[in-house]
Specification:
Length: 253
């Protein structure tokens, strides 16, 4: 069984932090992964740096820019993950642009991800025509393939996106760019409607920044995805590993 499927088998609510691979360095990324895993997170999303981030707000975009400026490549991120994978029990998902996937060989790149220890992939800007064959290839590898659902996506389209997904479905809590928010997302009716068209576990991200946000997500969905708030913490400290573990403790209250 795929690690992501196994993680979502029980009723425990999941926490899925997002980090940018290679910021502040690939070596520190390895240590942050170990720290997050030690703090008890369930799945870690790793953004592979891209020069034109998709829907990422200023915090994550700046993090990706720094990583690129220091020479971080997709291959470097894969090698960094591979070196520590055996020490990590959490699932690891790659968040990567369609451009990188295609330039890196499509199926060949996904196979490299799997061999490096990743358990799945999210390609936020992929279209259906390209997604279908990649999803089928991922199935042969027992590798999860996740599509994103916007707040404005009609339910017939949600069904189509769910059919293109395995592992879980990524639900955007808000429209616009990623970034920290103050208000608690209103998810009750939207999640209930999505449940009518798919049995996949639902993970909610975009603006999930505090313990209150995580609690609101967990009231209706299986997992909360936290990105910008954690990435900012990691940028503002000289001890990212301790900051990562402390942040997980805070938002898990």
């Amino acid at each position: 069984m795929n690690r992501i499927d196994a993680i979502f088998r029980d009723d425990k609510k999941k926490l899925m932090p997002f980090i940018v691979g290679g910021d502040p360095s690939l070596e520190m990324t390895q240590q942050i992964l170990l720290s997050l895993d030690g703090a008890g997170v369930d799945v870690i999303e790793i953004g592979i740096p891209f020069s034109d981030p998709i829907a990422d707000g200023p915090v994550i975009a700046a993090s990706m820019h720094r990583a690129l400026q220091t020479g971080v490549t997709p291959s470097g991120v894969l090698e960094a993950v591979s070196a520590v994978r055996q020490q990590i029990s959490a699932g690891i998902i790659a968040m990567v642009s369609d451009s990188i996937v295609r330039k890196s060989g499509g199926e060949a790149f996904i196979e490299r991800l799997a061999n490096a220890g990743f358990d799945g992939i999210i390609i936020p800007d992929i279209d259906d025509a390209l997604a279908r064959p990649l999803k089928e290839f991922c199935v042969t590898l027992d590798f999860s393939f996740t599509m994103l659902v916007a707040p404005t996506t009609p339910l017939p389209r949600v069904r189509e996106l769910a059919e293109l997904s395995t592992g879980f479905l990524y639900i955007l809590a808000r429209t616009g760019l990623t970034g920290e928010q103050t208000e608690v997302p209103d998810l009750d009716k939207r999640i209930a409607a999505i449940r009518e068209v798919t049995a996949l576990p639902l993970a909610v991200g975009f603006g999930i920044s505090t313990a209150a946000h995580v609690g609101a997500v967990h009231a209706f969905a299986e997992a909360a995805i936290v990105g910008s708030a954690l990435v900012r913490r990691l940028q503002e400290t000289d001890d990212p590993c301790s900051a990562a573990a402390k942040f997980v403790q805070e938002i898990s209250q």
